Amino acid sequence: MLDFKLTQPQQEEQHLAAEEQAGPVYDVVIIGGAPAGLTAAIYAGRAARKALLLIGPLPGGQVATTNLVENFPGFPEGINGAELAQRMQQQAERFGAQIVMDSVKEVDFSASPFTIQTHAETYRGRTAIIATGAVPRRLGVPGEKKFFGRGVSTCATCDAFFYKDKRVVVVGGGDSAIDEGLFLTKFAREVVVVHRRDQLRATRIYQERAFANPRMRFVWDSVVEEVLGDKTVTGVRVRNVKTEENSVIEADGLFMYVGTIPGTKLFAGQIELDERGYVVTDRHQHTSVPGVFAAGDVQSPDFRQIVVAAGSGAVAAIEADRYLAEQSHSA
Amino acid sequence: MPLLNTEIAEQVKQELSGLAGPVRLVMFTQEFECDYCTETRQLVEEIAELSEQLTAEIYNFSTDKEKAEELDVDKIPAIAVIGAEDYGVRLYGIPSGYEFASLLHAIQMVAAGKPDLSDETLTALAELTEPVHIQVFVTPTCPYCAGSVVLGHQMAVASPMVRADMVEATEFPQLAQKYQVMGVPRTVINETAHIEGAAPEGMVLAKLQEALEAVKVPS
Q1: Residues 81-120, chain A: which have Cβ within 8 Å of B?
Q2: What is the pLDDT of residues A269-314, one digit of tens each?
Q3: A78 touches chain B (CB under 8 A)
Q4: Pick the CATH number of A144-256 from 3.50.50.60, 3.30.70.260, 3.40.50.960, 3.40.710.10
Q5: Rounded CA gap, A29 and A114, in Å?
């Protein structure tokens, strides 16, 4: 409670001067302000390319809501997620990236320069880097919508307090579920982890901490089928996928960490997506459209690590720079 | 034991070095039965030390009732950030965690008297004829909350009809219950309208207008 951070809130919108709004053509337009996009902005800036970074509704992405990041190299004591995101943004600004907080509504990659339309403006770029990441998947079970934001959540760092001394259910078996579940044990008197398999997917060190934590218990081979309650959440109904038995776990809240959905709706039909909706890229972050690159979770669901996202962001920006150099030589 | 370590204090000093004008941190507190009153008071006094433009004024909520009423302060700990004008910028509860940045932001905004909002929002706010009370419920560990607080405060600076409060939900559980706050940030406008999550400027403005429309008596 008595911790004072200098993290600046990131929701300020920067309003470009009128003449800039007329539509300069940027060398690189980066869509998405989380580790992949932020790293791409740093590299683009340092390559002396005129870069625009569009940061949408969740600045910093998933890392911003992570309380302590312990696996990003360079921070032996760990670093607060929002602070890490903020530092990346400061670094991008230092190297000249123009940052605008606005969501992208529409894109047109059919001709160069590409057009990227946000709520407020239309931007043009000679190259584009898609780094829109992924958002938490929801269960889609009865009761979930009714209680979302007041009993059902996907952000433990935001809402943990409201479950002080209460019991909460966490659904999931990966790093997010366990990491956030452990965070919740600082507030809740009991955290019940419901997982559809009999083994966790989470990194071994998280598993060790979880099993050693007296406030955490596990319900294996089970899925949540319904969120119960009248005015407030009173529990969840779970089904054991092996025995088909139904049971009720009494709880005051539910936190869902069941994977993520890639932010690719905007690009459907314009670039190649795989069957799960992720952007298809080659090893150099090229998409199916020349001049359009993708980085981070939006094109790589298999690793979902901050350092991997940052790495692919750097590659995307380097490739964008090479592409631009080739274009100007052949022009 | 200081609340702000040397490193943070230095950074805060830097942040506040270019303050456009004098700012008073008017704080209401009391000696007992108040979870974080002592710490909030200490924080206010420590910050005031870091800039010549800042002064801390400490009042007792019980004995200085008139002053509290004059400034519309109804709960403690309370910080009213007042510059050349009182724009209606308040913080209830200790501004710790991510909300510390909200406090610094409030100080800078109030000193300059200029909000950073779009022309569309500024025009809409200039046309307000009814008072608007924005309460942004937060918790110190919520990363998205500070953005909503800053937005509320900006609207308060932009318009004399708007006042905006940061309300730290953990210290005011009855209020959290009254407004059914179970997820933060939650922005409550004029008691009845509410927004879940960190909403962008346009959305908050729309909700604000909706809240005012709802009570209009058809002519």
Answers
A1: 81-82, 101, 103, 119-120
A2: 999 999 989 999 999 999 999 999 999 999 988 888 999 999 999 9
A3: no
A4: 3.50.50.60
A5: 9
